[in-house]
Amino acid sequence: MQFFLAQVEQGKDTVCASLRESAVKKNANDQRQFANFMKIGSVTLKNKTILAPLAGITNLPFRLLAKEAGCALVCSEMVSAHGLINKSKRTEQMLDSLPEEKPLSVQIFGSQPDVMAEAARFVESSGADIIDLNFGCSVRKIIKTGSGAALMKTPETAEAVIKAVRKAVRTPLTIKLRAGWNPADNQAFEISQIAESCGVDAITIHPRTAKQGFSGHSDWALIAKLKKQVNVPVIGNGDIFCADDAIAMLEQTGCDAVMIGRMAIGNPWIFSHVLARMRGEAEPTADLQHRFEIMTRYVQESVKYFGEEIACRMMRSRLCWFAKGLRNSSQFRKSVNHISTETEALQRIEDYKESLQADL
Ligand SMILES: Cc1cc2nc3c(=O)[nH]c(=O)nc-3n(C[C@H](O)[C@H](O)[C@H](O)COP(=O)(O)O)c2cc1C
């Protein structure tokens, strides 16, 4: 990270240069095709696809990969409001951004209205285009502080948080919810109404309960129901595993945009497939050559951004997502398990690619 920041200071031109160039090209093309498709407050999205906030994943290099694939809005990882107001360097660095990825939504989490408001001001001054409030995280560490999905159980606190943040910033504000806490609760409706009345500009819903975590299925009927109930845009999320799922969610629920999480982790190019389907074209066939090119650039740009040691540690698990479903992926997984240098990482990718030559 220090390495990256030093580069930023020296001149932004060197940072993620290849990713930035292709993100710009892709933006220009899509702007023509999908102009003014959706608005979140004053922010216009060029189409209806959004990259979900994914802790540990949606950092700057990854967001640029999604952008290059045509994604209209990228979201940061969730950022701790406390971390921001305590001036934690690591937390502040999560606000790093580049013009080519814009618009950018930065998600914050916390449960104290004054802390959330101050953090939102900080995020606004960092240049974020949208501020998103995390009301959906069900990880123990988060909910035990009353943050994330725990806020869905406490409508008064939820309201106080949203009101305080709304009052603190002019930046468009969104909220990301789950269905509720327990299956019977469906607090999403109550919280959405509160959010709308407090001036939130869009609502994202991942229709699983907090108790469900990632088990079972997303209840898309709930997205449709919410869409009928509120007047702000509704972003549907949950269980989009291919381009046709994205189209199906839009058609079945009437939601204003789709947000893609897990499927994008090893397939950031999923957005280009969804956009092809939105244009009425067939979904492009998977292109192994392209997959390997992206893996290579992901490693290179992450090394530039985070420095070699941190990037390689990250790439041990990230690269496995890219190999999911490919022949001999378990062997590849083992081979990247201990990578510690960029050269090593690139060599493993090259070796794996060669072993799959027959499929290329
Ligand atoms: C590794 C991982 C990290 C996540 N981090 C966040 C996060 O930081 N903030 C958030 O609101 N949701 C987070 N989520 C939830 C996703 O944004 C999304 O709501 C969920 O994965 C459902 O969408 P999907 O079926 O497209 O994956 C995370 C999910 C995963 C798998």
Describe what is shown at a glance:
49% of the residues lie in helices and 14% in strands. By secondary structure, it is of the alpha/beta class. Strands 3-10-9-8-7-6-5-4 form an 8-stranded parallel β-sheet.
Give a verbal description of the structure.
- The structure is a single chain.
- The chain has 360 residues and is an alpha/beta fold.
- The chain folds into two domains: 14-278, Alpha-Beta Barrel (TIM Barrel), CATH 3.20.20.70; 288-359, Non-ribosomal Peptide Synthetase Peptidyl Carrier Protein, Chain A, CATH 1.10.1200.
- The chain has helices spanning 2-10, 17-33, 60-68, 81-85, 89-93, 113-125, 140-143, 155-168, 187-197, 220-229, 243-253, 262-265, 270-278, 288-306, 308-323, 329-336, 342-355; strands at 38-40, 43-45, 49-51, 74-80, 104-109, 130-135, 173-180, 202-209, 234-237, 257-260.
- Strand 7 (173-180), helix 9 (187-197) and strand 8 (202-209) form a beta-alpha-beta unit.
- Helix 11 crosses helix 13.
- It is globular, with a radius of gyration of 20 Å.
- The structure holds flavin mononucleotide (FMN).
- The site of flavin mononucleotide (FMN) has 22 residues, from strand 4 and helix 12.
- The site of flavin mononucleotide has 22 residues, from strand 4 and helix 12.
Give the DSSP E fraction (strand runs of 2 or more residues).
5-15%
Shape: globular
CATH class of the largest domain: Alpha Beta
Query: In angstroms, what is the radius of gyration?
Result: 20 Å
